[in-house]
Every structure is written in structure tokens, then in C-alpha cells.
Amino acid sequence: MPGNKPNHKPVSKPARQLLFSEALQHKRLTPTKINPQTSPPLNESTTMPDKDQSTTMDRILQEITTVSRRIEGMDASITSLTLETKSMRSDIAGFQSRVTGLEQRMGSLETQINTSQVREQDFIYLRSKLTDMEDRSRRDNIRILGIPENEEGSDMQTFLTSTLPKMISLDFDPPLEFQRAHRIGPKRSDNSSRPRPIIACLLRHNQTRQILQVARNHGPFRIDQHEIRITADYSKETNERRKAFLALRPRLRKLEMKYGLFDPARMWVTKNGVSKDFYNHDELRLFLDSYQSQPMDSYNTDSEHDIVGGSDRAEPPTRE
Q1: Where do Basic and acidic residues bias regions lie (predicted)?
Q2: Is the Cα torsion angle 291, 293, 297, 299 positive or negative in sign?
Q3: How far, in Å, CA of 314 to CA of 277, rounded?
Q4: Percent of the chain at pLDDT exceeding 90
Q5: Which residues contact 308 (CB under 8 A, 6 or more apart)?
Q6: Cα Rg for the chain, rounded, in angstroms?
Q7: CA-to-CA distance for 181 and 170, rounded, in angstroms?
Q8: pLDDT above 60 (res 251)
Q9: Please, are residues 306 and 254 in contact by the beta-carbon 8 Å criterion?
């Protein structure tokens, strides 16, 4: 009826979506007409790629390939460095283990060295004590040099008892008595060679000192044109020390120093009333080397030990 509103049924939402999809699909499938007047003409530049662009792309591809190869080489180098680093770490760990072992061994060696030094000091001390004991055991001995072989006959003690007082021009009261007397060394068949020394051990120590005193002051002596010397009897070590001191006598004389070799092996040096003693010949040598730069006036004076006369025949002190 005119004047009445049409009766439209409402469309559901799914139906609206379906209709919209169909319309959109229809529009896509409908070909678009091209207007030749409004559309630009097709040319070679829009349809074919440029040669320069192709060359550039090839160059880029080559560079990419080169970079890729370099990266692969770097990967291999990194892998090699990683392996070397692991090997170095293993070596370092081994070195650390070795260093630890060496430190432990060094500690053990230091302990052994300290122990050896202590033992060496003990050995030196014991050796010096042994030398001193040997020298003391020889304190009653005299050594006689120069008496021809077989001069004593069959009895050495009887020969010395009768010959020694006459030779040194000294009377003994009571008479000389010997505990033992003999030559040392193998017997020599050739009489022209140097005769063997005689070692005689006297019964009384004061007579030993008298004989040595006369021998220092008046020796050497003579028997039938043979030169005879009488000296004290010392151990081998003491004799070597005395010889080392005596070898420095020319230097002492050159420096106009008075000197004396005391019993058993002690050298005293004096000049201008200043004295100094030496128990080791190396110390005396160093002193003589430095004498010009350090005069003896810088040393302390001990008048009790001053030496009279430039001779090595000074009387030795009494051995205790």
C-alpha cells in the first residue's frame, strides 16, 4: 500500500561478510582496461635489465663468494687456534705441576745443603781438634835431619844419648832418656842419597824444650862435615800451614817487617811497634796485599806478643 514502508528483513552479520567477500573476488577477476592514451608506452629500459647493473651484481656476488671463503678460512684458523689454546693450557698445567715438583725438590735440597753445611762445620771443627790432639801427642818429639844412614849402629837410643849432648854442647841433669827413637820411611840402600829423618821421643818435656831452644839459637850443627838440623815434630796439616807461612817471608823482608813463626803454626808480624798475629796464611797474604792502603798503625798493639828480631826462630810459647 502506498504510504506504507517496505518490509525489509535484517541481514545477519555472517551473510554480510559472505556478500562482501564475493564482491571483492569479482573485482579482482575483472581485467583492467588499459587506455593507450593515458598509459605510458613500454620501452626497453622498463622491460630489460641494464648491463651495468648485471656486471655490478656479478661483482657483488664474486665479492660475497670471496668473503665467504675468507670467513671459512677464518673459521678454520679459529678452530686451529682453539686447539692450540687447549694444548697450551694442557702444557701450562704440566709446567705448573713440574714447577711445583721442582719447588718441593728445591726445598728438600736447601734442607740437605743446610744440613751438609752444619756437618761440614762439624767436620772442620773435629778435624782441627784431631790435628791439635796429634800435635800435642808429638810435643815430646824432636826431628833430627842430616845424620848419615847406619851412623847410629844397632841402637838408636844409645847413639843419641851419647852424641846429642856433645853435638849441641849442652849438659843434661838428669841425663837424656828416650822413650823411643827411630828413622822414618823405607830404608835406603844408596848412601849417597839424603838420609832418612830420625824421630826421637824424650822422656822429659823440659829437656825437649831445651834442645829445641838451643837448635833455634845455634843450629845447624855438624857431625863429620855433615850438617845436622833439629826441629819440632808436627802433624802433616800443621807442617803444611808452617810451610805456607814461611813462603811469605820474602815479602815480609821486602816490606821491612819483623816476623816470627810460633808454635804450632801462628805467624806474628810487627812494624813500628805494632803487632798482629795470623793463624791462616791466606789472611796474611791479603794483609800484605792491602798493607799500603791500610798501614799497621790502624791495628791494636799488644806488647805481650811483640816479636823481637826479624827471624822465624822466635821461641814458641809453652803448649798447654
Answers
A1: 302-320
A2: negative
A3: 14
A4: 15
A5: 258, 314
A6: 59
A7: 20
A8: yes
A9: no
